[in-house]
Amino acid sequence: MEKRQELYHGKAKTVYTTDDPKVLVMHYRDDVSAFDGAKLAKLERKGETNNKFNAFIMGKLAAAGVPTHFVRLINERESLVRAMKMIPVECVVRNICAGSMAKRYGIEEGTRLPEPIFEFFLKSDPLHDPLVNDDHIRVLGWATVSEIGEMKALTHKVNAVLTPLFAKAEIDLVDYKLEFGHPVDDVGGPLVLGDEFTPDGCRLWDHGTHDKMDKDRFRRDLGSVIEKYREVAQRIGAPM
Fold this sequence. Notes:
By secondary structure, this protein is an alpha+beta fold. The protein has helices at 46-63, 99-105, 134-139, 145-168, 216-219, 225-236, and strands at 3-9, 13-18, 23-28, 31-34, 39-42, 70-73, 78-82, 84-86, 89-96, 112-122, 131-132, 171-178, 180-183, 192-193, 202-206.
């Protein structure tokens, strides 16, 4: 496998083509951003931390029957992934009320929900990722009825796998976002989990103290961002 030209430069990752059109190299950088890119920084060891964290989580999900685009680790900062045609929506599950949900509905942050709440958001930085529903997605052609059902089912399956994984480490999985798509070599086939699962895209609180152990530490200037990421990894058994 030969790494070739840059295909995509995101907020925290750079994706490269390879000599095989079915697979790509995902490079994790030390960049961190918040508020749609209004707040930017570089955090030492962030790239390697998230790369290894994501590889561990993707392995757990694959073992539980969740199809993912992850193939294997290449080195400390890079992973090999399947090339994907992504659906332009984010799938969010909330187990505890926090962040935008608390602000939107005037509910106290930290309120434990009687059951997980699922939400769709359009993936669009210029529009600040607006909340959308099934009809928006179907009528505007972002996904089919079948794909909508698949995204919901897979996102809840992820919750059933990861909530107890973190709970065993005395960590609450407050909420998280996922993105799905079709591998380019199987566009008509089942959906596959893409992007990443790291503390950048979820909320993780210490169960006893409610100490934040995710990107909210950067958003809210709490400090020790990567130290907390690595503490989460150590507690769930992810090699760093």
